[in-house]
Design a protein that fits this description.
The complex is a heterodimer of chains A (259) and B (157).
Chain A (H helix, E strand, L loop, with lengths): L1 H30 L1 H4 L3 H11 L4 H25 L6 H39 L2 H7 L4 H39 L4 H11 L2 H28 L5 H30 L3
Helix pairs in contact in A: 1-7, 3-7, 4-5, 4-7, 5-7, 5-8, 5-9, 5-10, 7-9, 9-10
Chain B lengths: L3 H26 L11 E7 L10 E4 L2 E12 L4 E8 L11 E6 L6 E6 L11 E3 L1 E3 L4 H18 L1
The chains are: A mainly alpha (259), B alpha/beta (157).
């Protein structure tokens, strides 16, 4: 009984310790922006590997999510003879929710896991200690560019997701199901508000980008430097990112749209 | 490994694609192109009952949208709803004895304010008030009145 209690406490302390380390690392990473600014080339290279290489999965998913939304929405809306509102339904769900959330989940799976594995392996093969030996701060040289690359890429990807999804919804709704072309767009334009919906979606995706990249970098940097440790860290990145995104999405939605 | 130059070009294209998508959302999906609530002039109107009218509901004349509802408040002294409409500045030829009614678009559609022009020479200006208004139709009241009149007809027979 006492043993179990002690174990519970130890786990709790360890979790708290990790939590604190993550925040300290976050501060270090952000402070590293001073050494990133004179070298924007690093940021560009990382934006390539974090953002550009995620573009295919994001656009293809966006297209299909938009198409499915259109199909499902049509089924429900046609029961109320409200097919003309299909555009609103598709665009509102994409811009407010699915764009930022699904993109963040894909981003965590595609880019976050790669970041963790890369940094974990750098640690396991002692490249990070090597940098330190050469008096180069690995946080500033390795983590900071990746962090800001993730922060920049996420909103871009989410906006792309929403735009392509709206087009996918248009193809299925207007092309396949025969919803009126004019009503689809005009209802959408009448109901979707720039500040309320689009900007809030972009803010959401910024927050998700920050959290996902931060989790990925921390898990990589904090991983046990063995093959097993790196594999565990990669799994943790995806799981923690997904949970963080979904919980934060609820909080942000309640703050933005809850009246 | 790709050359740095190529990487830079691809990243540039990536950011440009993001901007294009944002532009698309702004122009095609959202209402940014049509009308932003910052411009135009504000007019108030008092209603006994606004029904399901909401902030951002349309204001239309002859079926054409001229503006939006920007604020709905409750006036404690007169027990009325005080609705502020913002009308686009290009539509500045609205007589000050215009009649404002709350309509419903379609049977289950959203409610909007319809304006019927009056014959006055004076035009509505910023801060003006529409004095003639008609409340929203409340379905229960209409059904109630209908049943009541039916019952009366029966009674006279």
């Amino acid at each position: 009984m006492l043993d179990a209690l002690a174990r519970f406490g130890r786990h709790g302390m360890a979790a708290l310790e990790r939590f604190g380390r993550a925040h300290l690392l976050f501060l270090q990473i952000v402070a590293g922006i001073t050494s990133l600014l004179p070298r924007p080339g690093l940021l560009v290279t990382q934006t390539y590997s974090v953002g550009v290489r995620t573009i295919v999965i994001v656009t293809v998913s966006g297209l299909f999510v938009g198409m499915v939304l259109s199909l499902q929405g049509y089924y429900v809306l046609s029961q109320f003879a409200a097919e003309d509102s299909l555009g609103v339904m598709v665009a509102a769900s994409l811009v407010r929710e699915l764009g930022p959330v699904v993109t963040a989940l894909l981003f965590a799976g595609r880019a976050g896991s790669a970041l963790t594995a890369e940094i974990g392996l750098m640690k396991a093969t002692e490249q990070l200690s090597g940098l330190e030996m050469m008096a180069v701060d690995p946080v500033r040289r390795i983590l900071t560019p990746r962090f800001f690359a993730g922060l920049i890429s996420m909103p871009v990807l989410a906006v792309l997701f929403s735009a392509i999804g709206a087009l996918g919804g248009y193809f299925v709704g207007v092309g396949l199901l025969g919803v009126d072309d004019g009503a689809f767009w005009s209802q959408m334009q009448a109901k979707i508000d720039w500040n309320e919906d689009v900007i809030n979606g972009v803010i959401k995706s910024l927050v998700f980008g920050l959290v996902c990249t931060w989790i990925a970098l921390f898990q990589g940097y904090d991983s046990v430097p063995t093959s097993e440790g790196v594999s565990r860290a990669t799994t943790r990145t995806v799981v923690h990112s997904a949970l963080a995104v979904l919980v934060l999405d609820f909080v942000l939605t309640a703050m933005m749209f809850g009246e | 490994m790709m050359k740095i130059r190529q990487v830079e070009i691809v990243v540039g294209a990536f950011m440009a694609a993001g901007l294009v998508a944002l532009f698309f959302l702004a122009m095609q999906v959202s209402n940014l192109s049509a009308f932003t609530t910052g411009e135009g002039y504000a007019v108030t109107a008092r209603f006994d009952n606004i029904g399901g009218l909401k902030v951002r509901s349309p204001v239309a004349m002859a079926g054409v949208r001229l503006g939006r509802v920007v604020e709905i408040r409750y006036d404690q002294s007169s027990y009325e709803a005080l609705v502020t409409l913002r009308i686009e500045s290009q539509y500045d030829q609205i007589p000050d004895d215009t009649f404002a009614k709350i309509y419903t678009s379609g049977l289950l559609g959203e409610q909007y304010i319809g304006l019927d022009p009056g014959g006055s020479e004076e035009m509505l200006v910023d801060g003006g008030e529409i004095t003639m208004t008609q409340s929203a139709l409340v379905l229960e009241e209409i059904i109630g009145q209908f049943l009541f009149s039916k019952a009366e007809e029966k009674g006279f027979e």
